[in-house]
Amino acid sequence: MRFLILGLLFFSMAASAKNVSATDLPNILWITSEDNGPELGCYGDEYADTPNIDQLATRGLRYNYCWSNAPVCAPARTTIISGMYPPSLGAQHMRSHLPMPE
């Protein structure tokens, strides 16, 4: 009985799905270079040799002012990946020893 209900639910959802053509969708390519400081050629650093990032910066979008949801790298990456604040996922600390759920 459970499989019958799940099957009916699946097929009703599949039948009601809207066909979307590729022209209806936005054409977005998001390339992120994270865990850097301002020590990049595109920000005026003369010592840094970052030609690929510099080329992306000249042809794309470069932020002069930005902020992060977390002061360290792994929780900030968690925010980018999940779209949620690190404390809401328990990911606000680096290398924390937390008990595993049962």
Would you kindly provide a written description of the structure presented here, covering whatever features stand out?
This protein has helices at 2-16, 51-59, 73-82, 86-89. The model has no long low-confidence stretch (mean pLDDT 79). With 102 residues, it is mostly helical. It has four helices and no strands. Helix content is 37%, strand content 0%. Among the domains are: 30-61, no CATH class; 68-92, no CATH class. The protein is flat, with a radius of gyration of 22 Å.
Structural class: mainly alpha
Discrete helix count: 4
Instruction: Specify the helix fraction band.
Output: 25-40%
Cα-based radius of gyration, to the nearest Å: 22 Å
Short overview:
With 102 residues, this protein is mostly helical.
List keywords for this structure.
4 helices, mainly alpha, 102 residues
